[in-house]
Amino acid sequence: MPLVYLNGELVEEADAKISVFDHGLVTGDGVFESVVVRRGRPFALRRHLARLGRSAAAIGLEAPPSQELAAAVEDVVAAAGFEFGKIRLTVTGGLGPLGSGRAKSCPTVVVAVEQLAEPSPSVAVVVVPWARNDKGALSGAKTISYAENVVALAYAREKGAEEALFLNTAGELCEGSGTNVFLGIEGELVTPPLSAGCLAGVTRSLVMESVAVTERRLPRRELERAEELFLTSTTRGVHPVREIDGRPLSWPGPLTSQAARAFGALIRAGQA
Ligand SMILES: Cc1ncc(COP(=O)(O)O)c(C=O)c1O
Fold first, then answer.
1. Separation of 204 CA from ligand 1 center, angstroms?
2. Are residues 264 and 129 in the same domain?
3. Closest ligand 1 atom number to CA of residue 48
4. pTM tops 0.85, yes or no
């Protein structure tokens, strides 16, 4: 088993124990990042650490300095020796009461890694019946309160799909349970703006810096007009969608292929 970083130490997984009073466990009070390991190296680590800092600030948590977290990630990755994997970096509110009020305590910091299988060539998605709360206190922050995503993904899987798409409270396309969404409509690549309530995905930004993308609000009917769709995330990269709500799509469409090529070039250059 790979070693785990816990509060300043590299330990065996069996010794990586946190208290039942940890506020992350009790209330979901914490933030996290998933960072992909490609060719044995963490990809786009600087961007992930910057987002972790923003997420922590958004919910009023004090995360350790980025250099400290980066060193912890490097140590865990070096010890694991995986070529392709997923690092999970979690910072919680630390010890607290068995309720919502925070105590003044040190954060709990965990870095864990697991090996990844290559993503499937395409994915089927469904729109879930629950809204993403674009007006909530946690909107745009990558917090560990993920039960809504767990429920949505279970719903998608029951319908034979592999990812769940959320609309926001205005009925506009927002994001997937763990992905951002891009649509090809009449030759134009479009994606919801951050103000629609989606996470500022690292992969989303890299794609937007590499190919022409228009950010605009996308009411549900735009999903029905889309000729092609793809998802982005750290572990999936650019992931073509073959079916939405049972409607087959051409995949990979030309805009998806272009984005995948541009993203592939970034990976090969190791520059993000
Ligand atoms: C809710 C949500 N949206 C979007 C994303 C994609 O972000 P990234 O490209 O940084 O992985 C994630 C990934 O973790 C996510 O959890």
1. 8
2. yes
3. 10
4. yes
